[in-house]
Amino acid sequence: MATVMSGCIMATQYNIRDIIFLSAWRDAFFFAWPIAFPTAFFIQPLVQRLVNKLLPKK
Known about the structure:
Structural class: mainly alpha
Oligomer: single chain
Distance between the termini: 30 Å
Helix content: over 70%
């Protein structure tokens, strides 16, 4: 998740073929993973419960 987030953020700022893209991507990754990791493990169960209530299994 953090990999995708940082890649998308950097792709809007720099050309992927530029060497600065790799440096900027690394910096964005180190910024994004502390946000993405807790989100994936702590917020996801809450969202899953909400989705299960809204879309019950048949």
